[in-house]
Design goal:
Number of strands: 2
Low-confidence stretches: 258-278
Number of domains: 1
Largest sheet: 2 strands, antiparallel
Strand content: under 5%
Mean pLDDT: 78
Radius of gyration: 20 Å
Helix content: 55-70%
Distance between the termini: 30 Å
Order of helices and strands: HHHHEEHHHHHHHH
């Protein structure tokens, strides 16, 4: 019955996101036109692709997780009793993802209001964006600490759990860096959805293997929502997730691990926390396309400041592939292959630990 909750969450996430996307595409297109002050011309070939499609992901996933969690509670009533801390962990994971998504939404709105010819301005200032992302990270880390499930160490392959006083700071830096890397990947059709879909499958698989079915409701619901969103984001895209979708996906990849990870001595009503699932280290391989995209931009900037010339012909990776003549569809498949490699690395990391 508890497995049925995962199916319900995944199917409902797909259906709701598909329905919301069908309704929001024309609405978001009109919003962008109104913000730019242009006349409606849906047949124009150079009409910009609507953004802020991440709202579909956020709303669809939230509803799907709610229904899936109710089904899980019906199958396992202890989730409302002795295992209620698991409920707190799931709620904090959702809050963390939504908090980063809200930062991305503010960035999207700022880009639309900029009234650039293509409707996509620079958005929030870098300092504003980083400050908001740091606030979101600190907020959720504080909630984790209040609920007694904030990781205070690292799980290293072959060494197990190692205490580290700087672990909370490392989680915050990791999540903000991942959000910034996901922003860079926003420019390629389907990249964010494809990478996040592979990451959610990995999290769901690892959590279910260890019997953490209730916590797998979130990645199951988001995987279904991402699959539905690819109906519009697959090249050539008809709707982009925007910064809100990118940061929401990055938050989901990043916050799922810390929310289900705790040191061995924190075993309580929910038992001893498994050492090989959900720790924040898995965010690195699971978000591999994001890190590659953001890493190329970082290297490009640093090399230009050092040598005065670019290191790559173009950055990030999807722009470099585009410059080499690769089609948008092939770029999508290439980055999806990179996501699968990251998923394989995450599985190996979990087994080695």
């Amino acid at each position: 019955m508890i497995r049925f909750a995962l199916v319900v969450a995944s199917v409902l996430g797909f259906v709701l996101t598909a329905a919301l996307g069908n309704m929001m595409v024309p609405l978001l297109r009109e919003l962008q036109r109104a913000a730019r002050g242009t006349q409606p011309d849906s047949d124009a070939p150079d009409s910009p692709v609507p953004t802020m499609g991440g709202l579909c992901l956020m709303v669809g996933t939230l509803a799907a997780v709610g229904v899936g969690w109710l089904a899980a509670c019906a199958a396992q009533p202890s989730l409302l009793g002795s295992d209620r801390q698991m409920t707190s962990r799931l709620l904090i994971a959702l809050l963390g993802s939504l908090a980063f998504g809200a930062v991305g939404l503010a960035d999207d709105l700022a880009r639309i209001r900029s009234r650039y010819p293509n409707g996509l301005g620079l958005g929030l200032r870098r300092t504003q964006r980083l400050a908001l992302e740091c606030i979101a990270a600190v907020l959720v880390l504080g909630l984790l600490a209040l609920n007694g499930c904030l990781p205070t160490g690292l799980i290293l392959p072959g060494a197990g759990y190692v205490e580290c006083a700087l672990a909370p700071l490392l989680w915050a830096v990791l999540l903000v860096a991942m959000a910034e890397a996901a922003r860079v990947a926003d420019g390629a059709d389907g990249t964010v959805c494809g990478a996040a879909f592979a990451a959610m499958l990995g999290l769901m698989m690892l959590e279910t293997q260890l019997g953490w079915f209730p916590l797998a409701v979130f990645p199951a619901a988001l995987a279904g929502a991402l699959m539905a969103f690819l109906l519009w984001d697959f090249p050539p895209a008809k709707l982009h997730p925007g910064r809100c979708g990118c940061l929401y996906a990055a938050g989901a990849i990043g916050w799922n691990p810390p929310c289900i990870c705790a040191p061995p001595e924190s075993a309580g009503a929910i038992g001893c926390i498994p050492l090989c699932i959900g720790y924040a280290e898995l965010s690195i391989p699971l978000a591999l396309p994001f890190w590659v995209e953001g890493g190329m931009v970082l290297l490009q900037v640093l090399f230009c400041r050092w040598k005065g010339r670019p290191l790559f012909a173009a950055a990030p990776l999807h722009r470099w592939l585009e410059k080499r003549g690769m089609s948008a569809v092939n770029i999508f498949y290439s980055l999806c292959a990179l996501s699968v490699c990251g998923l394989a690395l995450a599985v190996c990391l979990a087994r080695w630990a």
